[in-house]
Specification:
With 339 residues, this protein is α+β, with helices and mostly antiparallel strands. The chain has two domains: 3-84; 104-337, 2-Layer Sandwich (BirA Bifunctional Protein, domain 2), CATH 3.30.930.10. The protein has helices at residues 3-19, 23-34, 39-45, 55-84, 104-117, 132-135, 167-176, 221-236, 289-294, 311-319, 332-337, and strands spanning 122-123, 129-131, 160-162, 181-190, 202-213, 242-249, 252-261, 278-287, 302-310. The strands form two sheets. A seven-stranded mixed sheet has the order 1-4-5-9-8-7-6, sandwiched between helices. A hairpin with a 2-residue loop joins strand 6 (242-249) and strand 7. The longest helix is centred in the first third of the chain and has 30 residues, at 55-84. It is elongated.
Length: 339
């Protein structure tokens, strides 16, 4: 490119800037002429091929082109911005935004923490991505247990999974501290379960653990039942009915299932409670001695209980929600009813 072609290219670039009418067009011109692979940088790099006697004049012309182009481009951008600027009339009334409300799941978790806080429980947290030992082995789960199957649990390889309960937080707490321990563990959990209106693959749990030393403070099943009955009354009101049924869990012995009376049919039977009048809310029991061994405790020197319940189940009963999926759809019409 000689000086004549350089001058012509400079004029064309300035004309293109003058005719550009959008911010996108101006940005395209900037890239075209000034970008890393733009025309002007390319010409500057090729100056080594210009004869020595012509380089001073050629270089001066290139720099003049670059300066005039940048000046024209900035002036055009400033002019375009000013034309598109909308003045704000401060005398006009502001736009009203309706205040938001707390999601029912968050409300249940906070209320639960407050209720158990009165009993001396503190809140503990842990990762949602867990290992097999914390989620299954330390909880005395046998290798053939259905929950270990890939059709029931979200696995990532052989030792990594999305936690199926918040029990691993209890394991972590016991492995990092000595008794007494009194904690609740709220959090998100995952299982491959979408069988009905009361189940979801993604749900929230709150689990609790109380462990103390023997014989200083023996912990009994009666203590567990009284704590859960107190929680039911504080959370649901005095009208809620609570039922304890013998059950089996690998990590507790003896174990119980805890049911609350159905919020939809008031105990007469419906599809939500599967015509039983009750909704299964929690599993609980005395911590199995083998769990204590896994975390390094002496089973003969400690005793304790554990429990766990679904936050969604509590929210459904408390607020009369017939379908668990409503809690995840973010339908403002539904959420406003709970405000």
């Amino acid at each position: 490119m000689d000086l004549c072609e350089l001058e012509k290219s400079s004029e064309i670039s300035l004309q293109e800037v003058a005719s550009a009418d959008t911010a996108q067009a101006l940005e395209a011109l900037r890239v075209k002429y000034l970008g890393r692979n733009g025309l002007i940088p390319a010409i500057i790099k090729s100056m080594k091929d210009v004869p020595k006697e012509e380089r001073p004049a050629f270089g001066k012309a290139v720099q003049a082109w670059k300066a005039s182009f940048e000046e024209a481009l900035q002036a055009k951008i400033a002019s375009s911005t000013k034309e598109n600027h909308v003045e704000c009339d401060l005398t006009q009334p502001g736009m009203w935004y309706e205040p938001g409300i707390k999601h029912p799941l968050s409300r249940v978790i906070e209320e639960t923490a407050e209720i158990f806080g009165k009993l001396g429980f503190t809140v503990a947290d842990g990762p949602e991505l867990e290992n097999k030992f914390n989620n299954f082995t330390a909880l005395n789960t046998p290798p053939h247990h259905p929950s270990m199957d890939r059709s029931d649990t979200f696995w990532f390889g052989d030792d990594c999974l999305l936690r199926t309960q918040t029990s691993p937080v209890q394991i972590r707490a016991m492995m990092s501290a000595k008794p007494p321990i009194r904690i609740i563990c709220p959090g998100r959990t995952y299982r491959r379960d979408t069988t009905d209106a009361t189940h979801s693959a993604n749900f929230h749990q709150i689990e609790g653990l109380y462990v103390d030393n023997l014989p200083k403070k023996p912990v009994s099943l009666a203590d567990l039942k009284s704590v859960l009955a107190y929680f039911a009354r504080e959370m649901m009101g005095d009208s809620v009915k609570v039922r304890f049924r013998p059950h089996f869990f690998p990590f507790t012995e003896p174990s119980v299932e805890v049911d609350f009376s159905c919020h939809v049919c008031k105990g007469s039977g419906c599809r939500v409670c599967k015509d039983s009048g009750w909704i299964e809310v929690a599993g609980a029991g005395m911590v199995d001695p083998r769990v204590f061994k896994h975390v390094g405790y002496d089973p003969s020197a400690v005793s304790g209980y554990a429990f766990g319940f679904g936050v969604e189940r509590i929210a459904m009963i408390k607020y009369g929600i017939p379908d668990i999926r409503w809690l995840y759809e973010n339908d403002i019409r539904f959420l406003r009813q709970l405000g």
